Structure formats: C-alpha cells, structure tokens
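Ops channel
N.P.: pipeline sanity check, posting one input/output pair.
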C-alpha cells in the first residue's frame, strides 16, 4: 500500500503514520520526493483495511494499493530513479558507468595488467570473479580470498571501484569486506537465502537476471534484497536461454526499457555473457546505450586465448579501448557522459 503524505505534512505526522504501519504488522519504507513524502507499507500485515483507514489521519493525502507483486522496487512506489552509490561513484545518474575486467581473477600479473588497461580506457569499476560458479566441478573455481586481496590491491593501484561475485551466504561477509559492489550471478538469482543475507549487508548489489528468469522473477528477487534492508540494487540483463544456440544467450534488449518502466532501480547490460562472442560485444554495447541502460559490465583479458574462463567473449585491452572511444558519442546522444 502507498500512503502519500500531503506536501505540508510535518515530521511528527510522518512518524505517526510510520508508527501506525508498524502497529498493523507492516514495514514502512519512507521515500522523500522533491515535493512530498510517500510511505510504502509492505509485508504481510494483519489487515489491509487498517491501512486504508490511514486516509483520515492528519497529513495523509491518499492511500492506494501497489498493484505489482514487487513493492519497494516498483515505480508505483517511487517515481524518481534510484541512484546507487559505491563510494563517490553514482550508478543510475547522468554518468554512464562501465565495469570491465576479466571473467576470473587468475594471477597478480593478469589482474594488474587488465586493471591498468581498463582504467586507461576510461572504465569506472574493475570486475573479476574470485569465487566462480562453474558449470563443471572440474573447471577453475576461483582464487577465493587470494583473489579478493588481488582485487583490493588493484583498487589501491588504479582508484577503480571493484565488483566481484558472492556465491554463498558464508562468503558474503568476506566479499563485502573487500569489494565495493557485490555481484549475484545468474545461477544464484533465486538463491533466496543469499538474497536475504545481502539485504542485511551495507554494500550495493548487482543482481544478474537468471538465465531462464522472467522480468517479474528478477524484480521479485530484487524485492527480497530490498525488503531485507538494502535498496542499493543494480539490475543486470545478461541474456536469457532460448532455442537459439548461435549466441551463448539471447540478449533481451527490450528488458532494459521495460525494467525502467516497472522499477526505479538502475539497469546495466552484460554484452559479454549475453552474446558469448567477442565480435558482438561492441554492437551490443552500443545498443545497450541507445536503449537506455545505465551502464555496462564487460569482460576484458590481456590474452583472451589463454583465459581460464570465458576467453571467447573476452575483449583484448585494445578492443575495449576502441569500444570506449566509440561509446562516447552514443552516450552523448542520450544526454549522458562517460568521464
Ligand atoms: C560472470 O560475470 O563471470 C558470470 C558468471 O556471469 P553470469 O552469472 O551472468 O553467468
Ligand atoms: Mn564470465
């Protein structure tokens, strides 16, 4: 339920409404807009009629139901776009954010070389998996804590923010200690225990769309994180599984404007996993900018042919620099900027 306050509602009136919402068994979510405060009452309270009755309370302008099954992350509750903050970096604002780096952190040399290259090309965030969810148990599973330490060293060296995947609830604490943004992989989009755990953590979360997940399921997964206390969420379209096998996944570009309609959360595109082919990363990146994405997450490796994972879709540093240079004009057309 959305409780819209009048534009002259006092702080006491706002607090009283929040108190009533709690008393009825719901959780209040306060959204301070430019003109007025809106309070979302979410959860499984005892009686929706109680909330309706708030209509007659001083300072309340209106009480309306939220029609979508996801509440806190929906545009119905919050009209203005959410800006996710990782330190001084803003995702969802006018700056178009590019995250780049290897699929996996492999060695110190590999990571530092990549970090220097993507920094020089204008990336804002260094990506790199330290915990890898691999299809085969015999494939490289990641350097784990050693990988996290290398990412932290690369951050010190370049000033880039760091994003890395968290695979289990047990690792959430240590990954949050080292990383600026926590990535939930496609395979874990509906790992509800993990989502709840990340709801209680004070780091932004990049939530990847599951490979067979609907938009509604993606937004309900985001709602798990938000309803457990963390509304700093970035949605990521990374391709879905379809009958087509020519590309690794099928990039659902329409998901980007649709997510922007349905939710106030920033949306980024992963053209690397969406296509699985180095040659398609560039056109897919341009399309992502044009269709309204807030950023990209791209795999880059100094020697893709030697990569321990996802070599065929990884760009060389030179290829990445070319894309970054070309993206400038596409980003400007969207009234945004890169650097
Ligand atoms: C990755 O980013 O390397 C990764 C495993 O991505 P996804 O979860 O989208 O498959
Ligand atoms: Mn990968």
């Amino acid at each position: 339920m959305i409780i819209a306050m009048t534009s002259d509602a006092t702080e006491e009136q706002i607090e009283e409404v929040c108190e009533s919402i709690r008393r009825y068994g719901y959780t209040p979510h306060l959204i301070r807009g430019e003109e007025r405060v809106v309070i979302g009452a979410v959860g499984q309270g005892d009686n929706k009629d109680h909330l309706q009755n708030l209509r007659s309370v001083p300072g309340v302008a209106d009480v309306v139901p939220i029609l979508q099954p996801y509440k806190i992350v929906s545009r119905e509750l919050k009209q203005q776009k959410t800006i996710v903050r990782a330190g001084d970096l803003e995702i969802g604002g006018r700056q178009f954010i590019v995250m780049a780096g290897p699929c996996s952190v492999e060695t110190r040399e590999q990571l530092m070389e990549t970090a220097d290259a993507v920094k020089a090309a204008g990336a804002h965030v260094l990506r790199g998996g330290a915990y890898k969810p691999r299809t085969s148990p015999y494939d490289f599973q990641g350097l784990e804590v050693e990988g996290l330490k290398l990412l932290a060293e690369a951050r010190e060296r370049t000033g880039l923010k760091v994003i890395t995947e968290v695979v289990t609830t047990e690792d959430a604490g240590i990954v949050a200690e080292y990383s600026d943004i926590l990535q939930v992989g496609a395979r874990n989009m509906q790992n509800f225990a993990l989502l709840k755990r990340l709801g209680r953590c004070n780091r932004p979360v990049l939530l990847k769309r599951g490979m067979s997940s609907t938009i509604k399921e993606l937004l309900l997964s985001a709602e798990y994180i938000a309803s457990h206390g963390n509304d700093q969420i970035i949605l990521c379209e990374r391709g879905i599984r379809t009958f087509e096998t020519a590309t690794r996944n099928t990039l659902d570009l329409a998901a980007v404007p649709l997510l922007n309609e349905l939710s106030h959360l920033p949306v980024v595109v992963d053209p690397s996993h969406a296509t699985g082919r180095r040659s398609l990363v560039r056109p897919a990146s341009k399309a992502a900018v044009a269709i309204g994405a807030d950023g990209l997450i791209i795999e880059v490796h100094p020697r893709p042919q030697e990569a321990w994972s996802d070599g065929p879709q990884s760009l060389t540093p030179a290829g990445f620099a070319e894309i970054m240079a070309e993206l400038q004009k596409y980003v400007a057309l969207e009234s945004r900027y890169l650097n």
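N.P.: looks fine end to end. The two ends are 40 Å apart (CA to CA).
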